[in-house]
Write the structure tokens for this entry.
Amino acid sequence: MSALKTNKSRVSLLKIPSGEDMIVGRMFIAEGENLKATVLLLHGFPGTMMNLDIATELQMLGWNVLVINYRGSWGSEGNYSFANALEDVQTTLNYIQDEAISIANRIDVNRIALVGHSFGGFLALKTASLNPSIKIAAYLSGANFPLFLKIMEEDPASEKRILNMLDESSYFLKGATGESLMNEIKEHEKEWNTFLFAPTLTNKKLLITAVTEDEELPKEQFHDPFIPILDQAQISYETVVFDTDHNYTNKRKELTATLQEWLLRNL
């Protein structure tokens, strides 16, 4: 019996080739024989919150959800870098759009959404800006790491805190250090700044969320200045602000409900 005719919901492990390595994918396949709209759910840096609860809930609501771990993180082969993570997302899209893979996993290749939290939000928007096949993307308390350079310039005392954060997170990742990641940010300062590449997101539909108590990526610095930039560029977006922390700790169900309603309207 083919995977397409096996109509029960299930979770499968995928080995996704990226560069010379294999990355880990968890494929949450929704019930039913027909091909499904599919969410590529992208976790943050370094991956404290994997959002598997959201993946499970969306699966039960009828969506396929694929959660990946970027190279050098959480069981995936290779070395971690921000550039590698960006490549991993595009490689994953190519992988699931392959006919054999899409049929085996009941994926409708014409209905794929990118949903990312924190650093994953950056990955979602940047990939959408580069990939014409992606029409909708969600930026959940999204990161804009080049803003750290501005913050450090305006407040030199913040440099030690930011580098320490990068170092502490790198402990859980292979082949990365705080210094190597900061060098990447400096090298790609303009092309990775969401404020600068926002105008390339025309013809996309975006969901932008933020939280009131964000100690990692304060709303006042990372979210509030972004909204007028989107307005000026005439980007189609919806925005929701939650009264919680960066990981939406006590608003998980509300966040999932917001995603469900937005996906129903747009995918």
Q: What stands out?
A: The first helix runs from residue 52 to 60. The chain has one domain: 3-262. The mean pLDDT is 96. Residues 16 and 221 are 35 Å apart (CA to CA).
